[in-house]
Amino acid sequence: MRCKIFKEQGMDEFTRERIARAMRQATRIVVLTGAGISTSAGIKDFRGKDGMYEIVRKRYNLPSPEAIFEINFFMRQPEPFYEMVRSMFAMEAEPTLSHRFLAWLEEQGKMSLLVTQNIDMLHHKAGSKAVLECHGTLRTASCLTCGRSFEFAEIRAAVLAGGIPRCECQGLIKPDIVFFGESLPAEFYTVHLSPPDADLLLLMGTSLNVQPAAGFALNLAATTESILVNRDPTPYDAMVTHVVNMDLDRFCQDIWEEMEKTPS
Ligand code: OAD
Fold first, then answer.
1. pLDDT given for residue 4 in this prediction
2. Res 3: pLDDT
3. How far does residue 148's CA lie from ligand 1's centre (Å)?
4. Measuring from atom 9 of ligand 1, which residue has the nearest CA?
5. Could you tell me the CA-to-CA distances from 146 to 25, 71, 73, 246 in Å, in that order?
6. Please, what's the b/e burial string for 27-49 (b: 16 or more CB within 10 A of its CB; e: otherwise)?
């Protein structure tokens, strides 16, 4: 059943209490996170102001900034992609308050599934366990020629030194993240086709621009109470029950405090 749609610029006491109550009562929360959950850790988002795509647009003369994640482009010109990965490796980012909040919700037995579009591994670092990394991970990499698999540690040094990692067979090595034109992990299609039983959907720090991850969440939003927390509006705000446009860490801190005031 659809609920009334609320649009909030920040959170007044009433909104905070209403959202905290929904989260206190929930026991099967499904979450979709995007790049916005990691910006306070220093990792840039993609489409936000000063995001990764704006940097790529200024620095490289590409058909479109998304080309750095296109497999055919990567095979011809891997440098822009590896420059982005280098800045991520060099940073050694730590989980944000929002990552820790989600790990805490799982510990409280409230989470059903956390789907992340992020490749930064910060949910695992924060202690979350039921995580589906639908755009893959930087944890491992593979040679595009012979298929040999590499651990993150084996290519890290080469990337940080400014190189493009290559296999013994001279094939190009690509982290096991999903590029445009590649399939998502099979486990994602399994939950997409048969979504988990959810009593609350939480969408955090995503512009909902990229399929099929956005479609998975929006399908669930059609039948489940949903909360979207994002700094900027998205084209799909009207499909979500509560839209809160504010900083995610601030939101999570407020709700965390509110939930701890009255434990479920
Ligand atoms: P986007 O960059 O498209 O969206 C991130 C959203 O987070 C933006 O709408 C920002 O307003 C919001 N945001 C940023 N910082 C925030 C903060 N501190 N608090 C609240 N909101 C904040 O990133 P995604 O939606 O994750 O895919 O992008 C999806 C996919 O597009 C990525 O996984 C990547 C990219 O192409 C692939 O590489 C395959």
1. 43
2. 41
3. 31
4. 207
5. 50, 16, 19, 46
6. ebbbbbbbbbbbbbbebbbbbbe
